[in-house]
Write a structure and sequence with these properties.
It is built from 13 helices and 14 strands. Helix 1 packs across helix 10 (272-283), helix 2 runs antiparallel to helix 11 and helix 8 crosses helix 11 (288-307). The strands form three sheets. Strands 1, 2, 3, 4, 5, 6, 8, 11, 12 and 13 form a ten-stranded mixed β-sheet that branches. The protein has a two-stranded antiparallel sheet with strand order 7-14. It is globular, with a radius of gyration of 19 Å. Helix content is 35%, strand content 18%. The protein is an alpha/beta fold. The chain has helices at residues 16-25, 42-51, 67-75, 79-82, 105-111, 138-141, 198-201, 231-240, 252-257, 272-283, 288-307, 310-321, 327-335, and strands spanning 3-9, 30-35, 56-59, 86-89, 94-98, 117-124, 144-145, 156-164, 171-172, 177-178, 188-190, 211-213, 221-225, 263-264. Strand 2 (30-35), helix 2 and strand 3 form a beta-alpha-beta unit.
């Protein structure tokens, strides 16, 4: 089974090898990366990985607008996507946690009944008080998330989607593929192998075209989203801005919404021994290890530069002091008189 992972990156150099290694462990065979405006050596590391045959790396074709959607439009005509049996569109801080025996994408596809698409529900993993950036697997450092059935005040949670090559595709979205609902009704399941809700399938609820109720939807797989990582890395993320679209800030509200440590889940750490070995193997390819170390050094240097600024020290203090309750949840509790 040929599975291609497609992603957009900007200043994600220290985290690339873990994400590539992890996805290789779960069955991804090919990678198509789009990068833009990198200042930490991300593009140089990707070029080195491309020279070793590990990934395909392209400059993002977007011209100052929606970087991700322009890249996905371009990806449709690229060889790795055209040759793939399945396409997996995800970000470098998102890890597909497959719960079925074998823990690979082929195992998940079989468990879901070989559908044309599988939409897997997010779980946002909290910072949980981790201050300092460390050059070791993110999945080993963060193991607490919100109640998996409820995020903030929402029971409908966003998804990311595996897409089979025969899906009646109009275009790829970042969270789901789009088709003509009046002409096609593809075989499409959630992370428990159940048909996705009809309103999601037909895009009948405009506000939730990328989400559906999370309850019962993750028996076979879920998506671990490490949007915060360490406090130091979050400052760098805020400085970088959103790789996928312009003028989006990662502020205290964004942090609070994703820093709910209500539940512990270490299931993804089953992969750690094999992950460490695969990262070491990748580092041993040509100059990959040297370019990874350069990206780590650049990340640490940017942390020092930001913490030397009063505005970022203020932000760090605000994040430390922020309640570990999502904004919408706090507002709902106040409305119900529970706060």
């Amino acid at each position: 089974m040929k599975v291609v992972a497609v992603t957009c990156v900007k200043n994600e150099g220290p985290f690339l090898l873990e994400w590539i290694a992890f996805n290789r462990l779960i069955g991804v065979t090919d990678f198509l990366f789009y990068s833009n405006d990198c200042a930490d050596g991300t593009d140089a590391l990707l070029d080195t990985l491309a020279a070793e045959g590990v990934v395909e790396h392209r400059a993002n074709p977007a011209q100052g607008r929606n970087y991700q959607m322009e890249a996905l439009k371009d990806a449709k005509r690229r060889r790795p996507v055209k040759a793939a049996d399945w396409v997996w569109i995800a970000d470098v801080d998102e890890f597909l946690n497959i719960h079925v025996p074998g823990h690979t994408i082929p195992d998940l596809v079989a468990a879901c009944g070989d559908p044309q698409a599988i939409s897997v529900t997010f779980r946002f993993f909290a910072n949980d008080g981790v201050e300092t950036y460390q050059d070791r697997p993110v999945i080993a450092q963060f193991d607490r998330s919100h109640d998996p059935d409820i995020w903030a005040a929402e029971m409908a949670i966003e998804v990311k989607t595996l897409v089979r090559s025969d899906f009646p595709l109009q275009y790829f979205g970042a969270h789901r593929p789009f088709h003509d609902p009046d002409r096609h009704s593809p075989h499409w399941t959630d992370g428990s192998g159940r048909p996705v809700p009809e309103r999601f399938l037909r895009r009948a609820t405009r506000r939730r075209i990328r989400a559906f109720p999370a309850s019962g939807a993750r028996q076979l797989a879920s998506l671990n989203h490490y949007a915060l990582r360490s406090l130091e890395s979050y400052l760098v993320k805020n400085d970088r801005g959103d790789v996928n679209r312009e003028n989006r800030a990662f502020d205290t509200s964004y942090w609070r919404d994703r820093n709910d440590p209500a539940v512990s889940d270490r299931s993804i750490q089953r992969h750690l021994p094999a992950l460490d070995a695969e990262i070491a193997r990748l580092k041993g390819l040509g100059r990959v290890g040297a370019f990874h170390e350069a990206a780590v050094a650049a990340h640490r240097q940017r942390i020092r530069e930001l913490l030397a600024r009063e505005d970022y020290r203020f932000m760090a203090d605000a994040l430390r002091a922020a309640p570990r309750v999502p904004v919408a949840e706090a507002e709902l509790c106040a409305l119900l008189g529970l706060s």
